[in-house]
Amino acid sequence: MNWDDLRVFLAVARAEGLSGAARGLRLDPATAGRRIARLERSLGAVLFAKSPQGYTLTEAGQRLLPRAEAAELALAAGQDDGGADGAGRLTGTIRIGAPDGCANYLLPQVCAAIGADNPDLDIQILALPRVVNLSRREADLAITVSAPVTQRLRAEKLSDYRLSLAASRGWLAANGVPDSPDALRGARMIGYIPDMIFDAELDYLAAFGVTRVPLASNAVSVQLNLARAGAGLAIVHDFALPFAPDLVRVLPDRVRLTRTFWLVIHAGPRDARLDRFTTLLRDGMRAEIARQEALAT
């Protein structure tokens, strides 16, 4: 198989169409289409089902995908020196996908420290209120709140983290302190937009029987700032509380949640540069969560 054709195949599979793939490869769509047709002829199989909605991998295409990704990683490993300069520092570009709470309150400190030690490394933080799609190469690695179930991704537990009920002092002075978790059902709550909760682990309020969220956002940072503005009660990451000293915990012994961050990368051949980076990221994240949660007590 021709690597150039495999490269086009991977781009089309990730973009789910010719136009997006062609833009990324700096080809015109017609050329990309001819490359796919040539690859299909050489394999004697149709790799994509084409429709007005885009290109979807056929069964043959799904079988080829992991082999093409393995070839891509092997070629990258053979073309570089492990992603390090002469002093052993990391170089190149690495993109991290993460939920916005992690991206806002943890990754800046962690990545700043990694970047200071590796000045020729470009670190990109992709903050999204949804799961980052590693299969489409939106990022090189992702931090998630649930472990993936697909065998094409490899996950390791990064760290537990805690969340608490919190409100501004002004709101509590005006409205009083709830006397039990049951009181949350009738309280003015801040939380996620219900139909935009992209992971069951983020449905914090359901555990307390809360069915109405008068003030909602898909972004953790917006929820935190609504609470700071005196809009109501919110479930807040403990690691974010040091950034909002005007908030206080409410019912700290009775409303206390624990969740887990997972570090997710592609399965398949190991990438030495990415392995080195994930070690730095893992150690930095664990230390930063512990530091911020200690400041919040």
Automatic annotation (TrEMBL):
Residues 1-58 form the HTH lysR-type domain. Keywords: DNA-binding, Transcription, Transcription regulation. InterPro entries: LysR-type_TF_proteobact-type, LysR_HTH_N, LysR_subst-bd, WH-like_DNA-bd_sf, WH_DNA-bd_sf. The keyword Hydrolase does not apply. The keyword Iron-sulfur does not apply. One of its GO terms (biological process) is DNA-templated transcription. PROSITE patterns: HTH_LYSR. Gene3D superfamilies: 3.40.190.290, Winged helix-like DNA-binding domain superfamily/Winged helix DNA-binding domain (1.10.10.10). GO terms for molecular function: DNA-binding transcription factor activity; sequence-specific DNA binding. Belongs to the LysR transcriptional regulatory family. PANTHER family: HTH-TYPE TRANSCRIPTIONAL REGULATOR, TRANSCRIPTIONAL REGULATORY PROTEIN. This is LysR family transcriptional regulator. The lineage of its organism: Bacteria, Pseudomonadati, Pseudomonadota, Alphaproteobacteria, Rhodobacterales.
